[in-house]
Amino acid sequence: MARIYISIGTNINRELNLRGAVRDLAQLLGPLQLSSVYESEAVGFVGDAFYNMVIGADTELALSEVIALCKHTEDNYGRVRDGIKYCGRSLDLDLLSYDQLICSEPVELPRAEILYNAFVLQPLAEIAPDTLHPVLHQSYQQLWHDYHTPQKLWVIPFQF
């Protein structure tokens, strides 16, 4: 059984897409651990604010199956893959970690965004405070405590 963490972001039809993604992932993965929902300004482009959160789950799925599940779920919510890195997203699912696996293929794990984006690190630290980053061997809570990059981020009331 592998412990996985997936970040979820959306700035298009935010409430609908976030609720639907969590519902669909729960049906595919089983019980989910949910962070709070955070609203954040768009990073890297001018656009609508995002809703972001992180989910945790235990799964028997292989890494390749989890990656495929994320892509399929994004596609179901109209994800456009046009090569533009910083743009609006109907749904963005990023596998942050798969147990303590460190790899660069088929995806980078642990995902670099953990260390650079408050909208990833803060919700991850919320639901996995004592889990150690596989490379740095520091807890996500400690990494969040030491985080100093200014990014506007706030918890919003959100009902699933």
Can you summarize this structure?
This protein has 160 residues and is of the alpha+beta class.
Number of strands: 6
Order of helices and strands: EHEEEHEHHHE
The top-level CATH class is: Alpha Beta
The fold-level CATH name is Alpha-Beta Plaits
| CATH H level, superfamily name | 7,8-Dihydro-6-hydroxymethylpterin-pyrophosphokinase HPPK
Under the CATH scheme, the architecture is 2-Layer Sandwich
Let me know the average pLDDT. Answer: 93
Put simply, the count of helices is 5
Question: Which labels suit this protein?
Answer:
six-stranded antiparallel beta sheet, 5 helices, kinase, alpha+beta, single chain, 2-amino-4-hydroxy-6-hydroxymethyldihydropteridine diphosphokinase activity, Alpha-Beta Plaits, 160 residues, nucleotide-binding
How would you describe what is shown here?
The protein has 160 residues and is α+β, with helices and mostly antiparallel strands. It has a single domain, classed as 2-Layer Sandwich (Alpha-Beta Plaits), CATH 3.30.70. It is 31% helix and 22% strand. Strands 1, 2, 3, 4, 5 and 6 form a six-stranded antiparallel beta sheet that branches.
